[in-house]
Amino acid sequence: MASMKIRTTTRTPAVVGRAPLALLSAMALLVAFGATPLAAQQAPPSERVPAPAPEDVATIDGAVAAIYAAISGPAGQPRDWDRFRSVMHPDARLIPTGATPAGGRGANFWTVEDYIQRAGAQLEAGGFFENELGRRTDRYGSVVHLMSAYESLRTADGEPFARGVNSFQLFWDGARWWVMNIFWEAETPENPIPADLIGARNQPDS
Fold first, then answer.
1. What is d(CA 72, CA 83) in angstroms, rounded to the nearest whole number?
2. Nearest 5°: CA angle at 165, between 206 and 182?
3. Engineering a disulfide at 63: which of 16, 121, 146, 177 sits with its beta carbon 3.0 to 4.6 angstroms away?
4. pLDDT band for position 145 (cuts 50, 70, 90)
């Protein structure tokens, strides 16, 4: 957490008195106790997204299934982006990773709207289905990390053209599940999906 530096400027000797000292005291209290958090100034997350279907946010299974369903469909079919938005936290990030031209690895950081704008037209034009192949889930309190192996297809019964692993981070706010981030990497011959992830299905209480 960044610290706040306070710099005072004395214009003339006459300003050294009770008023400047009171101002400094107020500023010191502001630093000590912190300004009002930005989150407190925003509308609650539930007011910043479309209303979800209850079954999409009541369980971990429901939230993950809703994401896969929302992005999947045949060529020419509009995707249900409001369903996608309703499950994702409004401040969530989608983070694709891959090789860089220099031979290293890189990541892009997209908002929900970035993802819809960047990927939406391509998914709808070419046809795209994403199926879960297996998952491993860890939960601590309200926080969940879920590794979900996937396959990508152009048609519902076609041959996969890609596979990989989606790393989901989810949060239970006491009333519903939110997808906080999706962080993914495509499978390569040098980096196959772990065999013990295919078909895996451990599920903590949701």
1. 12
2. 60
3. 177
4. very high
Does residue 112 contact residue 85 with C-beta atoms inside 8 Å? yes
Question: For the residues 124-151, what does the mean pLDDT come to?
Answer: 97
Residue 129 neighbours by CB distance under 10 Å: 20
Q: Judge contact between 83 and 70, C-beta under 8 A.
A: yes
CA distance 187 to 99: 12
CA 23/CA 31 separation, integer angstroms: 12
pTM, two decimal places: 0.79
Encoded tokens for 46: 């539930």
Most confident of 16-25, 41-50, 160-169: 160-169
**Shortest CA distance to 52 belongs to which of 90, 3, 26?**
90
Q: What confidence category does residue 70 fall into, taking pLDDT thresholds of 50, 70 and 90?
A: very high
Q: Are 110 and 95 in contact (CB under 8 A)?
A: yes
Quote the distance between the C-alpha of residue 194 and its chain's center: 24
Beta bridge partners of 200: none
Longest CA pairwise span in the chain (Å):
82
Whether 51 contacts 86, CB under 8 Å: yes
